[in-house]
Specification:
With 74 residues, the protein is mainly beta. It contains no helices and six strands. It has a six-stranded antiparallel sheet, with no helix packed on it. A hairpin with a 6-residue loop joins strand 4 and strand 5.
Amino acid sequence: MTSLNASLPSRFGREYLPVSLLLRLGKRELRIGRDFRSRYYAVSPLIECSAGVEPGHLEILLFRRWLVVFTKAG
C-alpha cells in the first residue's frame, strides 16, 4: 500500500528535509524535498548519489535542488 503524507516527523533525528513528501512502499520509504544544505564540493549538475546520514539511507540529489532519500520503514 502506498501512502502520501507531508506532515510526518523526520526519521533522521533532526529536520533534515523541512518540507517533504513521503511515499511508503511496503518496507521502504521514499522522501522527496528541496535540498537546503550548502555543499562545499563540486556537485554534478544532473544527479549526485551518496550514503545518507544514517545506515541504510541512500541520498540522490537531482538537478542540485531536489533531494530524494531512500530508507527502510521503521
